[in-house]
Amino acid sequence: MSPLRFMLLAGVLISQPAASRDDVTPWTPVGIASDQFESHAAFDPATGAIFFVRSAKDFSGWRILTSRCSPMGWTQPVDAPFAGDGVEADPWFERGGRGLWFISTRSTDGVHRKDLDVWRAERDVRGRWGLPKRLPAPVNSTGNEWFPRIGKDGWLYFGSDRPGGLGKTDIWRARRNGTRGWRVENAGAGLNGPGDEYEALPAPDGRSMVLMASDGLYLTRATRTGWSKRVKLGAAINATGSEIGALFSPSGRSLMFARDLKGRRSGEFFVWHINGREAWPPSCPGATAR
């Protein structure tokens, strides 16, 4: 999204939606959509497969599943090849697809963890996934971490309920500090307030960011002094206040997210075409809508 478009949106968001309802469409292909809660999609840049989170209707019991496109449509989702013994969520691919970041309560050193930590899995040149590695402190803490995403500015953004924040839960960011480990800091008052912030998704061009707080999705932009004060997206996006798990298309012109529809349909994917229609999410010729 260009800075000009952001400023135009920010100027009208307070009084009216930034998008019409025609710009926001459900994405419910057979095999992916179900009567459970689907969220947090990530498309593999190397294979085109989708990785996503499926949980119970009450958003419990998170698992990362994967499905690939076949001549008959999306295949039956199965556990991710690096799946562990805990709850796992929030998959995100690095550029090129060599590494994938996620969160997990999987066991470490034979001890099952109760808190969610940031992990990274990497595959070799043949595409085989190795054993995931848990990031060290201070990236991971004694609290929970969520939604690890790397911005164009080189920072790893994530949510956490660790102490020392500006509110109940905050967005934090981390950067490698040479050979001495990681430097971690609060992402600042432009993103964080006195309530809960969980997920921060930098745009591919690094100029803007979508933020998920306890009452829906917000937009902020990069300035010379940091991230601008966030602005809540309109009712076409924040229809229920349950919108989570945002994912930009590679161009930044579209945004996928999940929304809790309650009842039989539970959590489903939606796509916001921000700046004109584009051929995204990736199509699967044999797929039909549920």
TrEMBL record:
SUPFAM superfamilies: Tricorn protease N-terminal domain. InterPro entries: 6-blade_b-propeller_TolB-like (IPR011042), WD40 (IPR011659). This is PD40 domain-containing protein. The lineage of its organism: Bacteria, Pseudomonadati, Pseudomonadota, Alphaproteobacteria, Sphingomonadales.
